Description:
The chain contains one helix and two strands. It is α+β, with helices and mostly antiparallel strands.
Amino acid sequence: MVKIHKFIYTFVTFLSIIVLATSYRLKYCMTGNECPAILCSPPTISKCVRNTCYCTSQKRKKKVKK
């Protein structure tokens, strides 16, 4: 009985480590062009900040009155 519990505990631990390692989306970059657009959901865009791609909100351009 103890061996079964030990096996299940070990299996769940390794499975959770694998899931955490594969779900984290971190991409390194040198310029903004290297960040993939598919990295972020639609209201945000990907930008290169300190050599890492991050999802940031788009800045709205102010309309200039003539």
